[in-house]
Known about the structure:
Domain Bet v I/Major latex protein: 110-261, 262-413
InterPro entries: Bet_v_I/MLP (IPR000916), Plant_def-hormone_signal (IPR050279), START-like_dom_sf (IPR023393)
Organism: Prunus dulcis (Almond)
Keywords: Pathogenesis-related protein, Plant defense
GO molecular function: abscisic acid binding; protein phosphatase inhibitor activity; signaling receptor activity
Number of strands: 19
Amino acid sequence: MSRWCKCCEMRVNAQPLNVEARDPTNHVESKRKQTEKIVELDDSEYRFALKVLEGPALTLRNFSALTTSFQLSKIGEQETLVDMKVVYETEKEETNTGDIALQPAISYIQFLEKYEIKTEAKVSVGIEALWKALAKDVAFVTPKVIPNLVKNAEVTEGDGGIGTVFLFNFGSDVPKMSYQKEKIVELDEAVHKIGLQVIEGGHLNFGFSSYKTTFQLTPIQEEETMVSVEVTYESQVEDSSMPSKTANPKFSSLSQKLHLGAMVKEIKTEAVVKVGIEALWKALVKDVRFVAPKLIPLVKNVQMLEGDGGLGTVLLSNFGSDIPKISSSKEKIVELDESLHKIGLQVIEGGHLNLGFSSYKTTFQLTAIREQRSLVSIMITYESEVEDSGIPSTINMSSFNFIRNLESYLLNDAT
Length: 415
């Protein structure tokens, strides 16, 4: 019998103390019972070790002994370095045995990681009117502006301050969800910030272990406000578009209540993807003609009409019959900075310009987090007289879905 060791490290967007709040036996070899014993624990050093006593990690992996050690080191306020080491015994050591031994530990740490979705929009409404609709009248306003989604809402606990609990009962247009309870866990009148945590039903019935939405309002001018929406969640669900889908009704209801659709000039969406920055940049800039039709089913093909891929290049996207009002869209690269991994595309003909927009520009900004982790920021800047208050929500969801489709393509389909 031989004794072996395998190590690796990961950075995750989670606080060190989150680790002790999880039961690792629930997340290793899902749907099977496994018994593990804590054989080392040092709270001051953020170090602990788990030894498998019985279960599939031993029987299915042909290990006679398996102990996993975790050492956590704080990097930033919301980022932690996790050093993992597995010590195992097996009769037959193969080239990937160490990786197999480490996989449950890696899956466990990934389960702990928090993900964030951020959206920003400028609106031509004063901050106090926005704050009243969002923080003071939310239970009253929501069913009136999105009755197809929310039948009714009520305050079940509290008086509108910290600790207040809202119950939202959903309509038939929200399949598989009948209700959701949210609690105000953050409230700062001075900076116009409110945070709502789902505590029962809703997202928690869809594989999310936590789900929080935070709104931050910032005055720009007397009748102009920046609205920032941040969704923080922990999950292993396969439907990565869920946060975008369910965050949007809150943003839409606010827009509809105040008739903001045609006033919003900027929409910013951010998401972290598990792909390196160079692979992302290549797909977005170098290979966009080949990648876009694979990411967006509505796009039949993309042609380069002018230029060589640099500044001033004009791209023609031809759409399928599923888009009745527009057959094509011409976009021009009006901003390109290789060093910053930033590209801006302006619609110059067709597309959004045929749907009531007088201008429409999409800017992509990539930021490296680590070797195989990048932040993708999409800024949509537009001018429109279209009286459709669902525009911000639609743009946000489209941007988010594009990011996730791009991530999936690069991880699974790209050759």
